[in-house]
Amino acid sequence: MKPETHAYPKIQLFIGGKWLDSKEHLPVLNPSDENQIGLLPVVSEDQLDCAVTVAEEGFRVWSRTAPLERSRIILEASRLMRQRCEEIAQSISLESGKPIRQSRLEVIRGCEFFEWDAAEGQRLYGRVIPSAPHIRYLVIRQPIGCVASFSPWNFPMSQPARKIAGALASGCSVILKPAEQTPAGSIHIARAFQDAGLPPGVMNLVFGQPADISGYLIPREEIRLVAFTGSTSVGRSLTMLASAHMTPVLMELGGHAPVIVCDDVDAQDVGVVSAIRKMRNAGQVCTSPTRFYVHERLYPDFVDSFVHQVEAMKVGNGRGEDTDMGPVAHSGRLKVLQDLVDDARERGGKLLTGGSRRQGSGYFFEPTVLSEVPDDAKIMKVEPFGPIAVLNSIPSLDEGIEMANSVPYGLAAYAFTHSAANVDQLINEMEVGNLSINTLEASVPETPFGGVKASGYGREGGDEGLLHYTIVKNVMHSIGI
């Protein structure tokens, strides 16, 4: 099917099962050519108030719906999204610039989140605690209530999916504020759930200025949980706002993922897979491998392989079937990336390829590789969130681990080794929530995902992923009276 057959969807608010417009709008741009592709409705305070009201009503219905029926509706919505995969993927590529092949995979990944959580929602088991005769101690899990969720722009479909799946599978209602730059993925999700028969008010979409929406929703008594994916600085602000109202939070925040390459692997092969993964989604991934610490014996071959693979990548419009890397999502990223490159070079780092914005229209930043970057460079402490890789050599695994742990973040880390002793040391000493060895995949739906240190609090995915959406209730039942 040709990409031209898929139009960008009309962006509307979804409140109480109805599609609504607003008086104020913001432009939605295609980062590949900077042209406007849609208008984003900015939710009013009255509409936010309505969203809270209907979400509370939706929670009363959904929390009393049998887990099997909840699962059936979620799975039907996922089936519809799989059926509409191409339409959704084309929308994602238009608004984010992401290569269409990656967009298709994102749709499938989002569906997998729904499917895992739909099944896991039927297994929120409690327990019976042994007790004296004529008394029972029961521990049960119940949905926490209405959830205010905030998803980022880098994964327009799978990030909203993760938030919505956890809430709905647990029996909660949700008010989701997707990123204003990439709203279409959540629109397609809402359409699928409406077609699948989700009761009105259980899922609601609002768009607009992030600070205005969070500032209105989080203090509301009806909001029982705040779930956020985004930068550490914003996560801290939302956590402070929530804490003032004793509202629990689920925070998936920034990272600065290191990769340790030990001296017992094939440098060429690891260099190729590392370069491909680094430039996925133009490096705009919180788990993107960025700081590569390569054993000095393998370093020359690894650098040659990595740079060769990067220079062979085709950079262009995300809707092109042969595109390997698209633009960054918005213009503000370009200056940040350029400043990081310039600072690294001024401090003695070497530029091996790329290093600047590509000429012409669109927010294209060249795939960039730096080497021998000193520890005091900004990019060694600040997550670039873009297509920049840093390749440094290390004399030993001990030094690699020390450097990997030297930042305040601890979301994901990677290592390549075939030594059992190395693996044991990595598991014991790496300060991260997600450690991947001999693979650059940080998470899948069936495993818990989240960070330590400044990378957040709580987990999404796996058995642990639904726990934050529930409360624990202890029941003591005396039978003799």
Q: What portion of residues is helical? A: 25-40%
Mean pLDDT: 96
What quaternary form is this?
Answer: single chain
What is the beta-strand fraction? 15-25%
- Structural Rg: 23 Å
**CATH class assignment of the largest domain:** Alpha Beta
For this structure, the CATH topology of the largest domain is Aldehyde Dehydrogenase, Chain A, domain 1
Class based on secondary structure composition and strand pairing:
alpha/beta
Pick out the low-confidence regions: none
In this structure, how is the largest beta sheet organized? 7 strands, mixed
Gross morphology: globular
User: Could you say what the CATH architecture of the largest domain is?
Assistant: 3-Layer(aba) Sandwich
* Amino- and carboxy-terminal Cα gap: 70 Å
Instruction: Name the CATH superfamily assignment of the largest domain.
Output: Aldehyde Dehydrogenase, Chain A, domain 1
Provide a count of the helices.
13
Number of domains: 2
β-strand number: 22
